[in-house]
Specification:
Elements: E1 5-6, E2 9-18, E3 21-28, E4 34-41, H1 43-46, H2 51-64, E5 73-79, E6 82-88, E7 92-94, H3 95-102, H4 107-126, E8 129-130, E9 139-142, E10 147-149, E11 156-157, H5 178-182, H6 189-205, H7 215-224, H8 240-249, H9 261-276, H10 301-308, H11 317-324, H12 331-345, H13 349-362, H14 366-383, H15 390-414, H16 425-443, H17 447-462, H18 467-506, H19 510-524, H20 531-539
Antiparallel strand pairs: 1-2, 2-3, 3-4, 4-6, 5-6, 7-9, 8-11, 9-10
Helix pairs in contact: 4-6, 4-9, 6-8, 13-14, 14-15, 15-16, 15-18, 16-17, 16-18, 17-18, 18-19
Length: 552
């Protein structure tokens, strides 16, 4: 192809080749000179299965996308027996080459790349497209250090007829989610989130979380092995929230992964902002000399020593004896003092955990709430079942549970992506069933019916005290309470207006009284909760003055 023209592009170099086609560099010299990456598919490749359909679909997907972190579509055409389409040419290298050259990346740098990847994925997901082949070789890093997501060759369009038969596996084994390996219809935007977890682990550790001598072994690992924490292998210290996030991304069940790529990006942005502004954050391996070096959570002392790099000087047995002799007389006293300190300190451990959680829960930053729960509140409940701060900590747990339910509910209510709306767990499923009915009741001004539906949901969830359902119970109660408050406020306002109308009658101002009553009918006549009042108001308004008003 070198030296040939495809459309207005003169091919001058080969950039890469794969199962879906060959990519060349082409230069368009007509008009404004522009360099492009031109992907072609030959007649031979077109005859292999559905390769041509996938080639066309990739061009279709890119043509509809406009995002700074997704490679741009330029043009397409057919020259002789060769079909082609052109994309923007990215000066730089692949993330794969970056990791090969540098190994593990410092976590703040990894987070900057990761946020861009998440933004690109969320944009694709919001357009009902699942990439299904997220890996470093499909991510370009430009000279400006910007990420560009490429290669939508096996992307799944959730709104279109699938090009992959059920049970057929497509993708790269090292990054494939369990549901992708099974080839089931469960493939959704959360399939990309699993690959995202593998990718993040690789960027931080410089190696893969699962290993195998063949694709089959790797797939077995993805299906059965517990995902490892990157902090167990990374040579760098990591924020606890980042360590936990990556493990959640690699969860076997899609419903156990984060909600979407936007939620992942939000967590990363919060961590990066705290790092760049010098704010403290809980780290997996606290530095020596800090108050957090003696963590409340059980940790492997050997691993702490490995991370901090501290080694004790080797001493001979004779040295140890000589050093011990001057202190033998102090041993008994030290034991007594130690026991006294333990007696004083141990009962206050509950207070310590509570006071550590308190400023985090007062923060407006949701990641602080998560840190408070994972670092202090959960341990406080586990170690001190009857601690004196129970009332306040219960409120904090509810605050976190309600916030999570509210954010998830927003996705269930508003997302136009089919995979996003799939409810996980009993609480979500019940909420997803009740919300459309309650929303329809509100739209037809039947607020009491909406309240009834939310109260029934709350009653149903009260029968299941599982913590995972607590947020949905609180959200159902909140929905009902908000609508009840609106009904009460409306009733109060109607009563006030009726009182003013009666006062106008008493002041011998009938026209003013009629005007006020007409206003009541106009503003509140459609509300079911005001129906009885509106009937009484209508009786006091002359027929000719209500004939153009809406009737309840």
């Amino acid at each position: 192809m070198i030296g040939q023209k495809l459309g207005s592009f003169l091919i001058d170099a080969e950039l890469g080749a794969g199962a879906m086609g060959i990519v060349y560099r082409g230069t368009r010299e007509t008009g404004k000179t522009r360099v492009a990456a031109v992907k072609i598919i030959s007649v031979e490749q077109m005859s292999k299965g559905k390769a041509f359909d996938r080639f066309n679909r990739e061009a279709d997907i890119l043509e509809q996308f406009r995002h700074p972190n997704i490679v741009k579509y330029l043009a397409r055409g057919r020259t002789g027996k060769t079909y082609w389409y052109a994309m923007e040419y990215i000066q730089g290298t692949t993330l794969d080459h970056v990791l090969q050259d540098r190994g593990a990346l410092p976590w703040p740098e990894m987070a900057r790349y990761a946020i861009q990847i998440c933004d690109a994925l969320h944009y694709a997901h919001d357009h009902s497209v699942v990439h299904r082949d997220l890996k470093p070789s499909n991510l370009m890093v430009s000279l400006e250090d910007e990420i560009k997501l490429t290669d939508f060759g096996i992307a799944k369009d959730l709104d279109a007829t699938a090009l992959t038969a059920t049970g057929r596996t497509l993708g790269t084994a090292a990054y494939m989610a369990p549901e992708q390996i099974r080839g089931t219809p469960e493939v959704s935007h959360k399939t990309d989130l699993y690959a995202l977890g593998i990718l993040f682990y690789q960027m931080l550790v410089g190696n893969m979380p699962f290993h195998g001598g063949s694709a089959h072994v790797l797939m077995h690992c993805h299906m059965t092995e517990t995902p490892p924490n990157p902090s167990a292998k990374a040579e760098q210290n990591l924020p606890i929230a980042l360590d936990d996030l990556i493990v959640k991304l690699m969860a076997k069940a899609p419903q156990d992964r984060p909600w979407d790529a936007a939620a992942v990006a939000m967590t990363l942005r919060e961590l990066l902002e705290r790092h760049e502004t010098g704010q403290p954050m809980p780290m997996v391996w606290p530095e020596e000399g800090t108050s957090a070096h003696n963590p409340t959570r059980t940790m492997d002392v050997a691993l702490i020593k490995k991370k901090t790099g501290k080694k004790k000087k080797q001493r001979s047995p004779a040295d140890r004896i000589r050093e011990a002799l001057p202190t033998i007389g102090m041993v008994a006293a030290l034991i007594v003092v130690g026991l006294a300190i333990a007696y004083i300190v141990w009962p206050s451990s509950a207070k310590y955990l509570y006071t550590q959680a308190e400023p985090l829960m007062a923060s407006k930053d949701r990641s602080d709430w998560t840190s408070a729960q994972s670092l202090y509140l959960d341990e406080l409940e586990r170690r001190f079942a009857e601690h004196p701060y129970k009332n306040q900590t219960d409120l904090w747990h509810d605050k976190i549970a309600l916030d999570r339910a509210e954010r998830r509910a927003e996705v269930l209510e508003k997302s136009g992506v089919p995979g996003f709306k799939k409810a996980d767990g009993q609480g979500e499923q019940l909420y997803a069933a009740v919300y459309p009915e309650a929303d329809a009741a509100i739209k037809r001004h039947d607020d009491p019916d909406a309240v009834r539906r939310w109260r029934e949901l709350a009653t149903s969830l009260e029968k299941d005290p599982a913590k995972s359902e607590r947020g949905w119970l609180l959200l159902a109660r909140q929905k009902a309470t908000v609508i009840e408050a609106a009904i009460a406020a409306r009733s109060k306002e109607v009563a006030l207006l009726m009182s003013k109308a009666n006062d106008a009658d008493q002041a011998n101002a009938p026209e003013q009284a009629i005007a006020i009553r007409r206003d009541i009918i106009k503003r509140f006549g459609l509300y079911i909760d005001q129906a009885n009042t509106i009937i009484q108001v209508r009786k006091l308004v002359p027929e000719e003055s209500t004939k153009t008003e809406p009737k309840s």
